[in-house]
Design brief:
alpha/beta; Rossmann fold; DNA polymerase, domain 1; seven-stranded mixed beta sheet; transferase; rRNA (cytosine-N4-)-methyltransferase activity; rRNA processing; cytoplasm
Length: 308
């Protein structure tokens, strides 16, 4: 198993640091790389609350930071951010929020999690394997139009209809329950693929996003981030493909330039976010050291003060 390397580590954490004794949230704990660096920069009165829906991640970081009283782990999807912080009485008090979207290296590397087309394992793909429907169960029930649409829109798969047909034909013969079984079906159905890239890459991505409702989670959490931050609080979000990044970019743009009354009868709404700089991408050195960082994009914004 490869060690997990946090992407854009210093850029992300440094972007949100303000009060060294403030309150910070890591929406996507993973193995705690961003949180570890964040804690190293904070004072003894600071607090860091970390979210993850993966129970393995929660167990790992709880042990990793067991001796640090500034840290609290919450086993929940980041789409529950506002309700979880509200239950702690912390709404509107957060100084900085970071999120590293998508799947983590440990999830990809552990065969039993079912995320990888390179090793054999049960076709699960759930970020929280204690909840929801596995990829195997989803594939057993999905209809051709819905599967083809998912492959096309969530995986940018040009051969979506052909692959969807192959999957549905194969499941008539036997349930699709293993990762390499699905990968072989896709490979046989794929007329051609990019050199150096496995033909099942986009299919696995699309199914993973669908099973975990990843885009719905992003759409849910963005307005919640705005609600839980204090004025001048900062958000830093890392995305890994255009479906994610477009949502982040559009949200920041819309909050920075809220639409006014088309008739001009009402005052122009005040901006609620201020973008900080342009999108940040990993350096050549980082990509060489950690190829999984190559598609990452970091966007940072600051919550505007409430107008007097």
């Amino acid at each position: 198993m490869s060690a997990h390397v946090s992407v854009l580590l210093h850029e992300t954490v440094d972007a949100v640091l303000a009060d060294p004794n403030g309150l910070y949230v890591d929406c996507t704990l993973g193995r705690g790389g961003h949180t570890a660096y964040l804690l190293s920069q904070l004072g003894e009165d600071a607090r860091v609350i970390g979210f993850d829906r993966d129970p393995d991640a929660i167990a790992f970081v709880s042990a990793r930071f067991a001796d640090d009283p500034r840290f609290v782990a919450v086993h929940a999807a980041f789409g529950d951010l506002e309700s979880e912080l509200g239950s702690l009485g912390l709404t509107g008090q957060v100084d900085g929020i970071i999120a590293d979207l998508g799947v983590s290296s440990p999830q990809l590397d552990v065969a039993d999690r079912g995320f990888s087309f390179q090793v054999d394992g049960p076709l699960d793909m759930r970020m929280d394997p204690t909840r929801g429907v596995s990829a195997a169960d989803w594939l057993a029930r999905v209809k051709h139009p819905d599967l083809a649409r998912a492959l096309r829109t969530l995986g940018d798969e040009k051969n979506a209809s052909r692959i969807a047909s192959a999957i549905l034909e194969a499941r008539v013969e036997a349930p699709i329950q293993r990762t390499l079984q699905l990968a072989a079906i896709v490979k046989a159905a794929h007329p051609r693929w990019e050199p150096g890239r496995h033909p099942a890459t986009k299919t696995f991505q699309a199914i993973r996003i669908a099973v975990n409702a990843e885009l719905e989670q992003i759409d849910a959490v963005l307005p919640q981030i705005l609600s839980v931050m204090k004025p001048a609080g900062r958000m830093a979000v890392i995305s890994f493909h255009s479906l994610e990044d477009r949502r982040i970019k559009r949200f920041i743009r819309d909050q920075a330039n809220p639409p006014g009354d088309p008739l001009g009868l009402l005052p122009q709404p005040a901006p609620r976010l201020r973008p900080l700089g342009k999108a940040i991408r990993p350096s050549t050195a980082e990509v060489e050291a950690n190829p999984r960082s190559r598609s990452s994009v970091l966007r940072v914004a600051e919550k505007c003060a409430v107008p007097a």
